[in-house]
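Side project, low priority. Logging it here so it doesn't get lost.
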Amino acid sequence: MSDTTVGRAELDAARLLLARMGISPADLVEAASDRLPAPTFAEYVPVVAAAVSDGTRRAYGSYWKRVLEQWGQRRLDEPTPSEIEQLAEYTKAHVVARRNARGGRSAAEHLIASLRCLYKRAVADGYVAAADNPALKVAKPRRLPSTRRAVADSRLAEINSVAASTGDDPALDSLLLRLHTETACRRGGALAVRAVDLDPDQCLILLREKGDTVRWQPVSPTLMRHLQQHAEERQASGTGQLLRYRNGQPIT
C-alpha cells in the first residue's frame, strides 16, 4: 500500500511540475517521436571513425570492429547496459594472450571506452537521448597497479652499446636513444621535432606531444651538438622534420 501511495504522490508532483512549465504529457510524446531514427552500428561506426582523430581511430578501431561483428545490424538504441557488459566479458575472454597480459582487463576497458566514444557522438547527433546512453551506465574495470619500471643503468648501457654497433643506421639509432633518455619524450614527440625547434644557445628543444602539449625541454650540450650535426648532414632545415634516414627521408 505504501508503494502505491508513493507512486501516486510522485505522479501528482510530476503533473504539477509539467503544468507550471506549460508542458503537457502529449508534448513529451511528440518530442520523443521527433527524434531521428537510430542507425545501425554498421551504418554509424564508419561515420564516427571518419570524424575522430587518427590516434582515437587507432585506439578504438579494433574494438569497433568487434562491435560490428557482434551487433553490426542492430540499431544504436537497442543494446542494454547488460549486453554491453556481456560483450566486454566476451572481449576479455577472447583477448590475444601475451607475456604482459593481465587477464583481458585492458581489452574490456577499451571496449567500453570505444562504445562511450560512439554513443557520445550519437547523443550529439540526436540519435540517442543523453539519459538513454547505455555505455555510461557500465563501469570500466578497475585498473591494476602499473608494472612499469625504470631501465637499470647497466641494461641501458647494454642497449646503447648494441644500438651503436649494429643495425643499418647506428648513428640515427644512438641519437634516438639519447634523445628519449634525456627528454623522456614519446615516440610522437621525437617524430615531431623540427630543425627550428632547436635552441642551441640555451640547450632547449621544443617538444610537441600527445594531447597537443608543448614544452621546452633542456638537454645536454652533447645531445644538442649531435642533433645539429644530424640536421646538417641529412639536410633537415626550417620546419621540416629533423630526424631523417641516410637518404634524407624523414623517419617514420
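Brief comment: Residues 1-6 have pLDDT under 50 and may be disordered.
Revisit when time allows.
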